[in-house]
Specification:
The complex is a heterotetramer, with two copies of chain A (81 residues) and two copies of chain C (146 residues). With 81 residues, chain A is of the alpha+beta class. Chain A is built from three helices and five strands, in the order βαβααβββ. Chain A has one domain (2-75): Ubiquitin-like (UB roll), CATH 3.10.20. Chain A has helices at residues 7-13, 27-37, 39-44, and strands at residues 2-5, 17-19, 52-55, 58-60, 71-75. In chain A, strands 2-1-5-3-4 form a five-stranded mixed sheet. The longest helix of chain A is centred in the middle third of the chain and has 11 residues, at 27-37. Chain C is 34% helix and 36% strand. The two termini of chain C are 21 Å apart. Classes of the chains: A alpha+beta (81), C alpha+beta (146). Chains in contact: A-D, B-C, C-D. At the C-D interface, α1, β2 and α3 of C face α1, β2 and α3 of D. β2 (28-35) of chain C pairs antiparallel with β2 (28-35) of chain D, so a sheet runs across the interface.
Amino acid sequence: MNVMYFAWVRERIGIPQEAVETDAATVSDLVAELVAREDRYAAAFADISALRVALDQELSDFDAPLAGVREVAFFPPMTGG
Amino acid sequence: MNVMYFAWVRERIGIPQEAVETDAATVSDLVAELVAREDRYAAAFADISALRVALDQELSDFDAPLAGVREVAFFPPMTGG
Amino acid sequence: MAVRVQEGAFDAGAELNGFVQGRTDVGAVVSFTGIVRDTAGNLLEMQIEHYPGMTQSAIEKIVQEAQHRWDLSDALVIHRYGALKPGAPIMMVATAAAHRAAAFEAADFLMDYLKSRAPFWKKEVTGAGADWVAAKEADENALNRW
Amino acid sequence: MAVRVQEGAFDAGAELNGFVQGRTDVGAVVSFTGIVRDTAGNLLEMQIEHYPGMTQSAIEKIVQEAQHRWDLSDALVIHRYGALKPGAPIMMVATAAAHRAAAFEAADFLMDYLKSRAPFWKKEVTGAGADWVAAKEADENALNRW
């Protein structure tokens, strides 16, 4: 699974994307796995309410299942326009 | 006093403006004087609710006094933009 | 603030580009362009009559009211009169502000007021004859929004 | 409908003029241009990051929703990414319709959704450092209008 990070999430984790091997059932499970890895992940995911997630390039939520998903992206609320 | 007509009011009366000598106290009194003159005025002023009036280039109403007014304009509701 | 009442054509794109050129305090620009629309496919021209002595000052008052209600960096109104062909630009409004809400609301307000309170009258000339465009009740009611 | 996501500059005036050129079924065109604003007078540049795989399709979905809700003749969205200087155009929306209400509302709707639902993130670089622009609660709340 390809996991992508944007804006300050990318800066805290230090990389724009990485391949992750996981059996996580939901986005929240994946976040828990990442947070357990290293402090930089814990720092990025410290406040989940400040984050958004997209699954295969569609906005989703942290309860969503990951079955069949190939790309997960984490980022702060968008500031386009 | 200069009296001006625009759009279909001008077309019905047949002239864009004219000098009018009048002692009319209000716009309504002036309209009554004009209507009494000729059929073309009666045709133009048949339905006052379909008309607007400006006094010295400011929108006003038919009850307004004419004292000191130099220019009266009659026209249908505006269709700008 | 600039208000121009003119018979000749204007270049909406050039006006938009020139409007806030070089400013760094403006975050949002909204423009409205009104175009002669050929509703029934038989329009020869749209004739726009106006009240020369009143038009400029009436529009300036409307723009001043918009500037009073919203924090605008600038505002522009151009309105043509005379005989215009289908597809020709009739008029244009542009508003500039720090934030988008003020720019949008002020442009919307200006259009509602120009529609019903600026002394212009439109006449459509088709192959079948000529008719004055009737004011719409919806346009008059739109003023109650503000 | 045209949606363009690009790093390079665009000419808002030329885009506006080209948008409905030659059409006689359009009576109203509304445009919005977003410009890099130097709030505190010390902005060096605005960096705009985006999610390349998602941006185009996310904007297209927003435009399709606008076309579903309003009777639009056409719609255009241009949004830049990369490093932009104060005064530079960031993005542009244009809507065309027979009547002004649809053009205004659709442009306003598009801006609200682009602001909070298109995957862009802004970072302000000043002499004092660099900060990500925080999303405003007011922008999220604005979506409830529609």
